[in-house]
Hints:
Blueprint (H helix, E strand, L loop, with lengths): L1 H36 L5 E4 L4 E8 L2 E7 L2 E6 L3 E4 L16 H7 L2
Antiparallel strand pairs: 1-2, 1-5, 2-3, 3-4
Amino acid sequence: MLFYYVVSVVAFVGIIWLLVVLPQRRINRRHAEIEADLEPGDRVMTVGGFYGVVRELVEDTVRLEIAPETVVTLARGAVAAVLAPSQEPGSGDGPGADVDSDRDSSS
């Protein structure tokens, strides 16, 4: 009876490991790669939803231009994604891409 209990606990821990821990490790590794590969000139999106261009990298911070002559300093961890040219705001792809076109067509 004790054997079945031990096997059940080990199986449960193994399932939790596969479903929770391993995917989270992959996500953390991918985010660390994004942080390490940042370069000045990259278009990025922050975790807060701001889009901008990396102007300077200093240790653990990023100087990000979010508007002309508006530069903010963020932690590197605040960068959620480096954008490909087709993913830039206003390119017509992604959530909310058709919001402006709906607004224009109703006028």
